[in-house]
Amino acid sequence: MKLSGKVAIVTGGSRGIGFATAKIFAENGANVVITAKDSKRLENAVNEIPNSVGITADIRNENDVKKVVEQTVKKFGKLDILINNAGIFPKIKQLHEIEEFEWNEVLDVNLTGQFRFTKVAIPYLKKTSGSIVNISSDAGLKAYQGFNADAYSASKAGMIILTKCWALEYAKDKIRVNCICPGVVDTDMTKPFLKTEKDRDFMNNEHPLGRIGQPDEVAKAILYFVSDDAAWTTGAILTVDGGESIK
To answer: Pfam families of this UniProt entry (predicted)?
Structure first.
Protein backbone atom coordinates (compact mmCIF):
# COMPACT_ATOMS: atom_id res chain seq x y z
CA MET A 1 0.00 0.00 0.00
CA LYS A 2 2.49 2.57 -1.23
CA LEU A 3 -0.08 5.40 -1.40
CA SER A 4 -2.12 4.82 1.73
CA GLY A 5 -4.00 8.01 2.65
CA LYS A 6 -2.88 9.89 -0.47
CA VAL A 7 -5.26 11.86 -2.71
CA ALA A 8 -4.60 11.84 -6.45
CA ILE A 9 -6.04 13.43 -9.58
CA VAL A 10 -5.57 11.54 -12.85
CA THR A 11 -6.56 13.47 -15.98
CA GLY A 12 -7.83 11.43 -18.90
CA GLY A 13 -8.40 8.58 -16.48
CA SER A 14 -11.35 6.83 -18.09
CA ARG A 15 -9.27 4.60 -20.38
CA GLY A 16 -5.78 3.57 -21.43
CA ILE A 17 -2.77 4.65 -19.38
CA GLY A 18 -4.90 6.96 -17.22
CA PHE A 19 -7.30 4.17 -16.27
CA ALA A 20 -4.46 1.75 -15.49
CA THR A 21 -2.82 4.44 -13.34
CA ALA A 22 -6.00 5.23 -11.40
CA LYS A 23 -6.52 1.50 -10.81
CA ILE A 24 -3.01 0.84 -9.49
CA PHE A 25 -3.21 3.95 -7.29
CA ALA A 26 -6.49 2.74 -5.75
CA GLU A 27 -5.00 -0.73 -5.22
CA ASN A 28 -2.17 0.96 -3.32
CA GLY A 29 -4.50 2.83 -0.95
CA ALA A 30 -5.04 6.19 -2.64
CA ASN A 31 -8.29 8.06 -3.06
CA VAL A 32 -8.39 8.79 -6.78
CA VAL A 33 -10.26 11.49 -8.69
CA ILE A 34 -10.56 10.68 -12.40
CA THR A 35 -11.38 13.28 -15.03
CA ALA A 36 -12.56 12.81 -18.61
CA LYS A 37 -14.82 14.55 -21.13
CA ASP A 38 -17.01 11.50 -21.81
CA SER A 39 -19.33 11.14 -18.80
CA LYS A 40 -20.50 7.61 -19.72
CA ARG A 41 -16.99 6.27 -20.11
CA LEU A 42 -16.02 8.02 -16.90
CA GLU A 43 -18.90 6.37 -15.04
CA ASN A 44 -17.84 2.96 -16.31
CA ALA A 45 -14.27 3.56 -15.16
CA VAL A 46 -15.31 4.61 -11.67
CA ASN A 47 -17.46 1.50 -11.35
CA GLU A 48 -14.38 -0.62 -11.97
CA ILE A 49 -12.03 1.21 -9.60
CA PRO A 50 -12.60 1.22 -5.83
CA ASN A 51 -11.97 4.45 -3.90
CA SER A 52 -12.41 6.50 -7.05
CA VAL A 53 -14.54 9.51 -7.94
CA GLY A 54 -15.27 10.76 -11.45
CA ILE A 55 -15.60 14.42 -12.37
CA THR A 56 -16.54 15.22 -15.96
CA ALA A 57 -14.30 18.01 -17.24
CA ASP A 58 -12.79 19.45 -20.40
CA ILE A 59 -9.09 20.17 -19.93
CA ARG A 60 -9.45 23.07 -22.39
CA ASN A 61 -11.85 24.86 -20.04
CA GLU A 62 -10.23 26.78 -17.18
CA ASN A 63 -13.41 26.69 -15.07
CA ASP A 64 -13.70 22.91 -15.48
CA VAL A 65 -10.10 22.50 -14.35
CA LYS A 66 -10.68 24.67 -11.27
CA LYS A 67 -13.84 22.68 -10.51
CA VAL A 68 -11.95 19.38 -10.50
CA VAL A 69 -9.21 20.56 -8.15
CA GLU A 70 -11.54 22.45 -5.83
CA GLN A 71 -14.04 19.57 -5.58
CA THR A 72 -11.20 17.15 -4.89
CA VAL A 73 -9.89 19.24 -2.00
CA LYS A 74 -13.41 19.85 -0.71
CA LYS A 75 -14.15 16.11 -0.61
CA PHE A 76 -10.81 14.79 0.65
CA GLY A 77 -9.29 17.82 2.39
CA LYS A 78 -6.05 17.87 0.42
CA LEU A 79 -4.23 16.99 -2.80
CA ASP A 80 -1.03 14.91 -2.89
CA ILE A 81 -0.63 13.79 -6.49
CA LEU A 82 -1.39 15.17 -9.97
CA ILE A 83 -1.01 12.98 -13.05
CA ASN A 84 -1.06 15.09 -16.23
CA ASN A 85 -2.12 12.29 -18.57
CA ALA A 86 -4.95 13.64 -20.77
CA GLY A 87 -4.05 13.96 -24.41
CA ILE A 88 -5.22 13.68 -28.00
CA PHE A 89 -3.58 12.48 -31.19
CA PRO A 90 -4.08 14.29 -34.51
CA LYS A 91 -4.56 12.89 -37.97
CA ILE A 92 -1.24 12.00 -39.59
CA LYS A 93 -0.36 14.84 -41.97
CA GLN A 94 2.74 16.60 -43.21
CA LEU A 95 3.31 20.09 -41.84
CA HIS A 96 2.11 21.92 -44.94
CA GLU A 97 -1.22 20.06 -44.79
CA ILE A 98 -2.04 20.85 -41.15
CA GLU A 99 -4.81 23.38 -40.57
CA GLU A 100 -4.08 25.95 -37.88
CA PHE A 101 -7.14 24.95 -35.86
CA GLU A 102 -5.83 21.34 -35.78
CA TRP A 103 -2.44 22.50 -34.55
CA ASN A 104 -4.02 24.72 -31.89
CA GLU A 105 -6.34 21.99 -30.63
CA VAL A 106 -3.51 19.53 -30.01
CA LEU A 107 -1.40 22.11 -28.17
CA ASP A 108 -4.43 23.29 -26.17
CA VAL A 109 -5.13 19.80 -24.86
CA ASN A 110 -1.65 18.26 -24.65
CA LEU A 111 0.35 21.23 -23.39
CA THR A 112 -1.79 24.17 -22.27
CA GLY A 113 -4.25 21.81 -20.60
CA GLN A 114 -1.43 20.39 -18.47
CA PHE A 115 -0.41 23.96 -17.62
CA ARG A 116 -3.98 24.71 -16.49
CA PHE A 117 -4.17 21.72 -14.15
CA THR A 118 -0.70 22.25 -12.73
CA LYS A 119 -1.28 25.95 -12.11
CA VAL A 120 -4.45 25.30 -10.11
CA ALA A 121 -2.99 22.31 -8.24
CA ILE A 122 0.31 23.90 -7.14
CA PRO A 123 -1.03 25.83 -4.09
CA TYR A 124 -2.51 22.60 -2.70
CA LEU A 125 0.52 20.48 -3.55
CA LYS A 126 2.71 22.96 -1.66
CA LYS A 127 0.79 22.06 1.51
CA THR A 128 1.45 18.33 1.12
CA SER A 129 4.92 18.33 -0.49
CA GLY A 130 3.13 16.67 -3.37
CA SER A 131 4.14 14.98 -6.58
CA ILE A 132 3.40 15.65 -10.27
CA VAL A 133 3.95 13.21 -13.11
CA ASN A 134 3.66 14.45 -16.71
CA ILE A 135 2.92 11.87 -19.40
CA SER A 136 4.92 12.78 -22.49
CA SER A 137 6.03 10.41 -25.28
CA ASP A 138 9.21 9.15 -26.84
CA ALA A 139 8.04 11.25 -29.80
CA GLY A 140 8.90 14.23 -27.62
CA LEU A 141 12.50 13.02 -27.38
CA LYS A 142 13.36 12.45 -31.03
CA ALA A 143 11.93 12.65 -34.54
CA TYR A 144 10.67 9.49 -36.23
CA GLN A 145 10.73 9.26 -40.01
CA GLY A 146 7.21 9.03 -41.41
CA PHE A 147 5.55 9.81 -38.07
CA ASN A 148 4.21 13.18 -39.29
CA ALA A 149 2.35 14.31 -36.18
CA ASP A 150 4.20 17.57 -35.63
CA ALA A 151 1.80 19.20 -33.18
CA TYR A 152 1.79 16.06 -31.05
CA SER A 153 5.59 15.84 -31.06
CA ALA A 154 5.89 19.54 -30.21
CA SER A 155 3.42 19.26 -27.33
CA LYS A 156 5.18 16.22 -25.89
CA ALA A 157 8.60 17.85 -26.20
CA GLY A 158 7.13 20.84 -24.39
CA MET A 159 6.05 18.63 -21.49
CA ILE A 160 9.59 17.32 -21.12
CA ILE A 161 11.16 20.76 -20.71
CA LEU A 162 8.29 21.97 -18.52
CA THR A 163 8.89 18.99 -16.24
CA LYS A 164 12.43 20.23 -15.67
CA CYS A 165 11.31 23.86 -15.27
CA TRP A 166 8.63 22.99 -12.71
CA ALA A 167 10.96 20.61 -10.85
CA LEU A 168 13.40 23.47 -10.30
CA GLU A 169 10.72 26.09 -9.62
CA TYR A 170 9.04 24.09 -6.87
CA ALA A 171 11.91 22.08 -5.37
CA LYS A 172 12.03 24.55 -2.48
CA ASP A 173 8.41 23.64 -1.79
CA LYS A 174 9.35 19.93 -1.80
CA ILE A 175 7.08 19.29 -4.81
CA ARG A 176 8.59 16.61 -7.03
CA VAL A 177 7.92 16.78 -10.79
CA ASN A 178 8.84 13.88 -13.07
CA CYS A 179 7.98 12.69 -16.57
CA ILE A 180 7.25 9.40 -18.34
CA CYS A 181 7.87 8.97 -22.09
CA PRO A 182 6.02 5.88 -23.32
CA GLY A 183 6.47 4.29 -26.70
CA VAL A 184 3.49 2.77 -28.51
CA VAL A 185 1.09 1.39 -25.91
CA ASP A 186 -1.95 -0.79 -26.61
CA THR A 187 -4.73 1.77 -25.99
CA ASP A 188 -7.73 3.28 -27.77
CA MET A 189 -5.44 6.05 -29.05
CA THR A 190 -3.21 3.58 -30.91
CA LYS A 191 -5.95 1.23 -32.18
CA PRO A 192 -6.24 3.02 -35.57
CA PHE A 193 -2.61 2.06 -36.22
CA LEU A 194 -3.04 -1.57 -35.16
CA LYS A 195 -5.99 -2.64 -37.30
CA THR A 196 -4.37 -5.65 -38.98
CA GLU A 197 -1.91 -8.34 -37.97
CA LYS A 198 0.57 -6.76 -40.38
CA ASP A 199 0.18 -3.38 -38.63
CA ARG A 200 0.74 -4.98 -35.24
CA ASP A 201 3.78 -6.95 -36.42
CA PHE A 202 5.30 -3.78 -37.86
CA MET A 203 4.71 -1.83 -34.64
CA ASN A 204 6.04 -4.67 -32.46
CA ASN A 205 9.20 -4.81 -34.57
CA GLU A 206 9.74 -1.05 -34.17
CA HIS A 207 10.47 -1.73 -30.49
CA PRO A 208 13.78 -3.53 -29.80
CA LEU A 209 12.15 -5.64 -27.07
CA GLY A 210 9.86 -7.00 -29.78
CA ARG A 211 6.45 -5.75 -28.72
CA ILE A 212 4.37 -2.69 -27.94
CA GLY A 213 3.63 -1.81 -24.32
CA GLN A 214 0.64 -2.39 -22.08
CA PRO A 215 -1.01 0.40 -20.03
CA ASP A 216 -0.22 -1.23 -16.69
CA GLU A 217 3.49 -1.25 -17.53
CA VAL A 218 3.45 2.53 -17.78
CA ALA A 219 1.22 2.80 -14.69
CA LYS A 220 3.78 0.92 -12.60
CA ALA A 221 6.45 3.45 -13.56
CA ILE A 222 4.10 6.29 -12.60
CA LEU A 223 3.44 4.58 -9.25
CA TYR A 224 7.19 4.54 -8.61
CA PHE A 225 7.51 8.28 -9.22
CA VAL A 226 4.67 9.26 -6.85
CA SER A 227 5.67 6.85 -4.09
CA ASP A 228 8.28 7.33 -1.38
CA ASP A 229 10.55 5.02 -3.39
CA ALA A 230 11.31 8.10 -5.51
CA ALA A 231 11.56 10.56 -2.62
CA TRP A 232 14.91 11.89 -3.91
CA THR A 233 13.92 12.01 -7.57
CA THR A 234 12.71 15.14 -9.34
CA GLY A 235 13.10 16.46 -12.89
CA ALA A 236 13.62 12.91 -14.17
CA ILE A 237 12.59 11.86 -17.69
CA LEU A 238 11.96 8.12 -17.87
CA THR A 239 11.45 6.28 -21.17
CA VAL A 240 9.11 3.29 -20.93
CA ASP A 241 9.20 2.35 -24.58
CA GLY A 242 10.68 -1.09 -25.17
CA GLY A 243 13.88 0.59 -26.38
CA GLU A 244 12.23 2.39 -29.31
CA SER A 245 13.89 5.75 -28.65
CA ILE A 246 17.46 4.41 -28.46
CA LYS A 247 17.55 2.89 -31.93
So the answer is: adh_short_C2
